[in-house]
Design goal:
mainly alpha
Length: 469
């Protein structure tokens, strides 16, 4: 066990650091992974319930909810970026046993959450009309979309506290608290959707306005829950708010990790937009292809849940080992997590493969769309092991602070392989959607090879913090 930092106040629990570099890797991996799988499952359910209830109100509300959910992501990019920087800085500090530095990075991360959340809230309202025009929202959907987006913008500061607070807790192996927080948000959101959206349980039926305020209340509760837990664990204390001299020295590392992570999110999601555009402009069967792709992606997203859990676990443990100055064990841990993740994803893929037709029938009633959804899933499920390699080793890069490598490889594979190949195969060679699905498979294979090469041969560990400040 790492020694206790003498700078920790007497009120700090006697054993604040539980990271043990000699612990069983398998037990450690699974102790961290299973709560995060459940956490991602509840995260998935939040969006699923929103869309399901919106569909019960009207198709206009469901269409608006889909547009707002996709466009709102751009306002969360900074939160995701800062959370990556927080995981790298806090996990390495935690692995080194520097609790004082952990507390200060907790304070710096939360201050960043508040500042950026508030700035983006203001910018969002100033640019709201422009964003609505860019989305090309139909006239009939304007009131609904504008109202939903306005309420979503109001909850941005709380959303930032929730996302970054979860990252702070995960970075210290406190993975049960983010799970509890996600259960709280999912439970409140589900109750609010049915109570306020559909007028159940004796509540007034507010329709789409009820859905918006249900999201507001549940996310606000999640953000406050994280702040309460950080206070209770004595990670958010008076000394967490460091003087400017320390912030000036510490913030550059947080920024150096964060900006490539944010850029990767933009690059990756813009590539998906381009892929939708290529699919929509197919010579034949574009409408069926789009519908089949959308249905297939809903099923495929379930497979991402264990992938994200192992991605988070890799970021945590690799950061801890690097903080403890054990680079070889850090690298070995990344491979061990990848091996166990591959076993899980391969087993799940084999099971899911047996039920593709009935699952496709459930999410897509139209027979032609069902057939295309199955076609999409066959290529993308076959590529799932390659995607998992990228996700897990990419998580290791995050823990080391080497997010620039993750951005270069994943962004490059998306824009230099997937998009050009999808156009060539889909439009010029095969002329059908199968060419696009094949391009997705090939790009994931190339991406996995590149990530594995960088992980094995490049010096990604040099991005870890060196100074014991």
């Amino acid at each position: 066990m790492l020694s206790r930092d003498k700078s920790v106040p007497a009120a700090m629990p006697q054993k604040p650091v539980v990271f043990n570099p000699e612990a069983s890797p398998t037990k450690t991996i699974w102790r961290l992974a299973w709560p995060q799988v459940l956490m991602m499952l509840f995260h998935f359910l939040i969006g699923f319930v929103d869309v399901w209830v919106a569909g019960r109100i009207s198709r206009d509300v469901q269409a608006s909810m889909g547009m707002v959910s996709q466009s709102f992501f751009i306002f969360l990019v900074v939160a995701i970026a800062v959370s990556n920087g927080s995981v790298a800085a806090i996990s390495q500090s935690y692995g080194a046993g520097l609790i004082h530095r952990v507390q200060r990075y907790v304070g710096l991360s939360l201050q960043s959450a508040g500042v950026f959340g508030l700035l983006l809230l203001i910018c969002g309202f100033l640019l709201l009309s422009a964003l609505i025009r860019v989305l090309q929202v139909p006239e009939s959907l304007l009131p609904i979309t504008t109202y939903l987006l306005s309420v979503y913008l109001l909850v941005l500061p709380a959303y930032y506290l929730f996302i970054i607070g979860n990252a702070i807790l995960r970075a210290q192996q406190l993975v049960l608290y983010p799970l509890y927080g996600m259960i709280l948000v999912a439970g409140l959101n589900t109750f609010g959707d049915f109570a306020l959206g559909l007028g159940m349980f004796g509540f007034p039926e507010l329709g789409y306005k009820g859905l918006a305020w249900s999201t507001f209340g549940s996310v606000l509760a999640g953000g406050l829950f994280n702040v309460w837990i950080l206070r209770r664990r004595r990670l958010l204390v008076r000394r967490s708010f460091a003087p400017w001299k320390w912030i000036r020295c510490a913030f550059p590392y947080l920024f150096r990790v964060a900006w490539p992570a944010g850029l990767m999110q933009l690059v990756w999601h813009s590539a998906y937009i381009a892929l939708f555009s290529i699919t929509a402009s197919l010579p034949t069967g574009s409408v069926v292809a789009l519908a089949g792709m959308s249905a297939g992606m809903r099923v495929e997203s379930l497979m991402f849940l264990p992938g994200f859990a192992f991605n988070f676990t890799a970021g945590i443990l690799v950061g801890h080992y690097l903080g403890a100055r054990k680079p070889e064990q850090a690298k070995r841990m990344g491979y061990q997590i990848m091996g166990q993740g591959l076993v899980v994803i391969c087993l799940l893929t084999i099971v899911l493969w047996q039920f593709l037709e009935p699952i496709a029938a459930f999410v897509a009633p139209d027979p032609e769309v069902q057939e295309e959804a199955v076609n999409y899933l066959r290529y993308n499920l076959a590529a799932m092991p390659f995607l998992l390699i990228s996700m897990i080793l990419g998580g290791a890069f995050t823990g080391a602070g080497a997010t620039i490598y993750q951005t270069l490889v994943m962004g490059g594979s998306a824009w230099l392989v997937r998009i050009p190949l999808a156009f060539v195969l889909g439009h010029l060679v095969m002329g059908v959607a199968t060419g696009i699905w094949l391009a997705m498979f090939v790009s994931m294979f190339v991406q996995a090879l590149c990530v594995a090469y960088v992980y094995q041969f490049w010096d990604w560990q040099r991005f870890a913090m060196r100074k014991q400040r």
